[in-house]
Specification:
It is built from 14 helices and 28 strands. It is an alpha/beta fold. The strands form seven sheets. Strands 1, 2, 3, 4, 5, 6 and 19 form a seven-stranded mixed beta sheet that branches. Strands 8-15-9-10-11 form a five-stranded parallel beta sheet, covered by helices on one side. The protein has a five-stranded antiparallel beta sheet with strand order 22-23-26-25-24, with helices on both faces.
Length: 560
């Protein structure tokens, strides 16, 4: 394919361009996929289309913009110029429609962009309040979601004294604490009887509410906002269902997000999606349309336990999904996305109070054993099944190592010896995993035998006998010598500790293994494939899976 410099703006109706890989959305999932795809295929043409006029930013740090703790330059997820340095083209444009039959995108203004494989990473949009709510058009009623929203609020703060924050989730709580930090009088409106209901139980939520009130916020529980009152076009107060009118010159709506599905509804071949969850994908992030993948907040995959499709709107999950999507687009073997991401986790800090939730700490099933420890300014909750941790909740001054506790859940490691440390909040992850590695090393080097039980229970170990229909060489298995026991090639586990910087390499695959998963007309069966093959040398040219390898109708070019 001919390489030609792409214009930075695709709004001109005379523009016609083409690329091997086209990514819609420059969030962290889209940019991560582009960078990983470049690593797999140095000669491929990669194009990112976005409506944002600014580079990829670290969205969890947006809350710090209000308090002035973070400057705009510190929000960048990657150093400035990363895309140019890696040969990734970025175009600012709005994609109006997907022509999946001809594999092209119709851009606002009449432009056309042809693609070899397409990744939808459009992220999420704010839920907001009902559009017919009285007073939502008043100056001072704002929905917080994107960087321009935060910059707009930052400019307005000099002129206001009282601010109303609407929304009882993590977003609302962080916004309240940021506004208190800059000296504003804050009213926090919570529709339910306690805050953070998806993350905390009532006991933990009471601790958070007490902490927020001590910081100076005025908390309004079970208060539903029914409208806004203005004076000469500007906001003057917030009206609630119980007949109160609370004065405020600024109202910030922080009521959560939903997947951005507008583009998914405008495709010539229908994409399967759920309104509240996102575009349905298989374990390799392939959609129901050949040649189209989805990743990030807009993607929903089937969770093994619940058998339902759910999205995972978090920064950590979006990074891992970007890597999985890149491997799929480049024809590489990947593990199932649910196994790559593992247990969910969320960490935040409200002033001096740290909150960490990993897995399912609010589990109430019959087989779940719950241990709690409640202090004056701390709360810890463990959800256990037998000797395995399935959920962890911690509130206190110090925040435990989130990725270390996530590893305990993902690898189903025994926690009987560290239950007390987890309940106290002083779990020493480095010492625990050092002892665990030493124990495994001793087992592998014990003279005369290799503990079969240890190998059989390791998630990273291949089976002790070749699977049905698989040759011994592929399974990594050898027949035991006479008088001896079976032995495996390689170590039990080469997994790196998750307490180190997040970096997980995705092994390569022989090209034909991805053909069915990436190009099937319907969602692929998540259990119909396995990974684990040795990496193959990187191709000099882009080699897409068979179902994605349709050549682009036109070479890369643009017209003036």
């Amino acid at each position: 394919m001919q390489k030609t410099a792409l214009p930075a703006w695709f709004g001109d109706s005379r523009i016609e361009a083409s690329a091997d890989v086209v990514i819609v959305g420059n969030g962290i999932a889209g940019l991560t996929a582009a960078i990983e795809a470049r690593r797999f295929a140095p000669d491929a043409t990669i194009l990112i289309l976005t409506e944002q006029c600014y580079p990829t930013i670290h969205t969890p740090a947006l809350r710090q913009v209000l308090s002035g703790k973070v400057s705009r330059s510190q929000l960048l997820a990657y150093p400035e110029g990363t895309e140019q340095a890696r040969g990734i083209k970025v175009g600012v444009a709005r994609v109006e429609m997907i022509d999946a039959v001809e594999r092209r995108l119709l851009v606002a203004g009449g432009g056309v962009v042809h693609y070899g494989v397409l990744l939808l990473a459009t992220g999420s949009v704010a839920r907001g309040l009902p559009k017919d709510l009285p007073g939502t058009a008043l100056d001072g009623v704002l929905t917080l979601h994107r960087l321009p929203d935060y910059l707009d609020v930052r400019r307005r703060l000099r002129e206001v004294r009282e601010v109303a924050v609407i929304g009882g989730g993590v977003h609302g709580a962080e916004t309240v604490m940021s506004l208190l930090h800059v000296g504003k009088r804050v009213h926090w409106f919570i529709r339910g009887s306690y805050c953070l209901p998806r993350l905390l139980n009532r006991v933990a939520a009471e601790l958070v509410l007490r902490h927020v009130e001590q910081a100076g916020a005025l908390v309004h529980l079970e208060s539903e906002v029914i409208g806004f009152v203005g004076r000469v076009g500007e906001l003057a107060g917030v009206a609630t269902a119980d007949g109160r009118l609370v004065p405020a010159q600024l109202a910030l709506i922080c009521t959560g997000t939903r997947p951005a599905l507008d583009l998914a509804t405008r495709s010539t071949l229908p994409l399967v999606y759920e309104e509240q969850q996102g575009i349905l994908v298989d374990e390799r992030l392939c959609t129901s349309v050949p040649g189209i993948l989805a990743a990030g907040d807009v993607a929903a995959w089937r969770h093994p336990l619940s058998a339902s499709y759910r999205s995972r709107p978090s920064w950590h999950a979006a990074v891992l999904q970007g890597r999985v999507a890149a491997a799929t687009m480049m024809g590489r073997v990947v593990t199932q996305v649910s196994e790559v991401i593992g247990a969910s986790w969320q960490a935040t800090r409200l002033g001096s109070l740290s909150i960490l939730a990993v897995g399912d700490p609010l589990a109430e099933a019959a087989e779940v054993k719950v241990l709690t420890r409640h202090g004056k300014q701390s709360y810890h909750r463990l959800a256990l099944v037998d000797d395995r941790l399935v959920g962890y909740l911690a509130l206190g001054r110090a925040q435990p190592d989130a990725l270390a506790i996530k590893r305990l859940i993902d690898e189903a490691l025994p926690v009987a010896a560290i239950q007390d440390a987890l309940l106290r909040g002083d779990f020493d992850a480095r010492a625990y995993f050092a002892r665990l590695r030493s124990s495994k090393l001793y087992t592998l080097t014990a003279p005369g035998r290799l503990a079969e039980r240890t190998l059989a229970t390791s998630r990273c170990a291949p089976p002790l006998s070749p699977p049905l229909g698989t040759t011994a060489a592929v399974a990594g298995w050898q027949a035991p010598p006479q008088g001896g026991e079976p032995f495996l090639q390689g170590s039990v586990s080469r997994r790196r500790p998750q307490t180190e910087p997040l970096r997980r390499l995705i092994p390569a695959q022989h090209g034909a293994d991805v053909a069915n998963a990436a190009g099937s007309g319907a969602l692929a069966d998540p259990d119909s494939w396995t990974g684990g093959l040795e990496p193959e040398p990187l191709p000099r040219r882009l080699s897409l899976p068979a179902s994605l390898s349709q050549s682009n109708p036109r070479p890369l070019r643009y017209c003036r």
